Amino acid sequence: MKIAIPLAMGQLTAHFGHCQEFAFVNVADGAIKDTEKIVPPPHEPGVLPKWLADHGVTHVIAGGMGGRAQQLLNASNIEVVTGAPVEDPEVLVKAWLAKTLETGENACGHDENHICDH
Predict the structure, then answer these.
(1) 3-state secondary structure the chain
(2) 14, 83, 84, 91: least CB-packed within 10 angstroms?
(3) 90 near 34, Cβ under 8 Å?
(4) Where is the Dinitrogenase iron-molybdenum cofactor biosynthesis domain (predicted)?
């Protein structure tokens, strides 16, 4: 399993499409094996879901994500978790694996007037 987490300054960022880099956390046998950080391609609608799928990502833990990005990720069999708190990627993955990750509202889904194209 490979879990992608959008980052800004080393921690989860609320806006999926505008992150500085992604942490790719590789998990095997219920434990973190390694983490790598990769700079994504420039943001354009639809680019990141394909890029993540091409990197073998199976799950995304995000703060906020627009509906189109969620649909594209789901179409690539990538499970999406939104509403995660700002935290280090390994902390988020450990909590998710332990089923103790507390999530709030999707930062891109709380206000119908707020436009998230990512």
Answers:
(1) CEEEEEEECCEECCEHHHCCEEEEEEEECCEEEEEEEECCCCCCCCHHHHHHHHCCCCEEECCECCHHHHHHHHHCCCEEECCCCCCCHHHHHHHHHCCCCCCCCCCCCCCCCCCCCC
(2) 91
(3) no
(4) 11-97
Vertex 24 angle, CA 22 and 29, to 5°:
160
Name the CATH superfamily for 2-8+17-79.
Dinitrogenase iron-molybdenum cofactor biosynthesis domain (3.30.420.130)
Q: What is the number of alpha carbons within 13 Å of residue 21 lying toward its C-beta?
A: 13
Q: Which two tokens stand for residue 82?
A: 């939104």
- pLDDT given at position 80: 95
Domain ranges of the chain: 2-8+17-79
